[in-house]
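Bug report

Summary: structure tokens for BLUF domain-containing protein differ between web form and batch submission.
Environment: batch mode, default settings.
Steps: 1) Submit the sequence below via batch. 2) Compare with the web form result.

Sequence submitted:
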Amino acid sequence: MSLLHISYVSRIGSDMHLAELMGEMERFRTRNLALGVTGCIAFEGHRVMQILEGPDAAVMALFDKIKADPRHEDLEELEHKTVERMSFRYWGMVRRPLADVVFLTQLT
């Protein structure tokens, strides 16, 4: 099975409150796990950094949804690569401080 790793940064629009997004995290996590997608997400102010990993088609479909989501502004893809194994296989979608996610991207 081909596995895909995508990381990106974006900005949550000023009309969106981070608390609202955080309230949806469990729903996102459950949906992603059902798709076989794991990763890591970090918030700092209105900035978001996320790593998505999983089956090619599932990760691409999810990333396409994220890119089309009007809550994400100034989205920039940082990495798009095939990987042999998922770094966050047992994590689901963990929330970490931004510095941790930047560090983790250097390890993958």
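Above is the batch result. After comparison, the two runs are identical; trailing whitespace caused the diff. The mean pLDDT is 81. The chain has one domain: 3-107.
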